[in-house]
Amino acid sequence: MVFNIVSADPVVDSVLSRVYDGYDQQGACWRAHSDSEDGFCCLKVKRQDRLNTAKSTRLYLLLTGQCYNNNGELDNSHASSGMVGAFVLGLEKNNVSIIAGHPRMPMGSWGTPPEDWSLVKLGPNDYWGWKSEGGYTGQGTSWSWYSFLAPYGKSIRELTAPLNFDDSGNCSEEDKCPSTIIEGKLEIDSTQIDEAVFPLHLTLEGKIKGKKFAPKTWVLPFDTKSWSYKKPKGLPDMEG
């Protein structure tokens, strides 16, 4: 059973103080170094979920934040990402351990990380992770995708699946440049209990180069060798 925790869990500060560069009292956040020279990121706990399994108790901890340059100015250009930290903690009576974790994962755009997250079951053997949506617009074309943060060994890996595609800002029927607009809906197929990681069902509808197509569902199987979802044959190009 999963319990979402609103108030701070007592073990969180003790773990984060050993992982990050320190607590920023003014920003009320945990400091982490950024990819820019002498820059830093300011991460706050986004959600905490306690999961009781048959064998153990875990705390799923997610942090999000923005990054700043060496002058303390927000790094929010179109090419700048936000920052996400994710940890799976093992809770025992007198001990806490990091089962898997990644303190610094650049995600998002315009300096802002994805803000809407949920904890979801990704596999049959108590394999859980976080789900969110990401997107980007450039030169008249928009993309969006699902992001899953999932344990991979001792670390956390981002898994992605396409969601929407729209190049109508770069093409128009008047210019004899038929546009492609694809909208998707995704579901995790948790009935496949013999798989290490559940496959995804992706239903798409819209038009490709001006021609409408009927809604169709594709299965995205999971490849345990590359630890990623595989693109099925016939799936429309949503990368532009």
How is this structure best described in words?
The radius of gyration is 20 Å and the shape is flat. The protein has one helix at residues 10-19, and strands spanning 2-5, 22-24, 29-33, 40-52, 57-68, 82-92, 95-107, 118-123, 127-138, 141-152, 155-166, 181-188, 200-208, 211-220, 222-223, 228-229. The longest helix is centred in the first third of the chain and has 10 residues, at 10-19. The chain has two domains: 1-115; 144-228, no CATH class. A hairpin with a 2-residue loop joins strand 13 (200-208) and strand 14. It has 240 residues and is mostly beta strands. Strands 1, 2, 3, 4, 5, 6 and 7 form a seven-stranded antiparallel beta sheet that branches. It has a seven-stranded antiparallel beta sheet with strand order 8-9-10-11-12-13-14, with no helix packed on it. The chain has a two-stranded antiparallel ribbon with strand order 15-16. The protein starts with a strand and ends in an 11-residue tail after the last strand.
List keywords for this structure.
single chain, 240 residues, mainly beta, 2 domains, 7-stranded antiparallel beta sheet, 4% helix, 56% strand
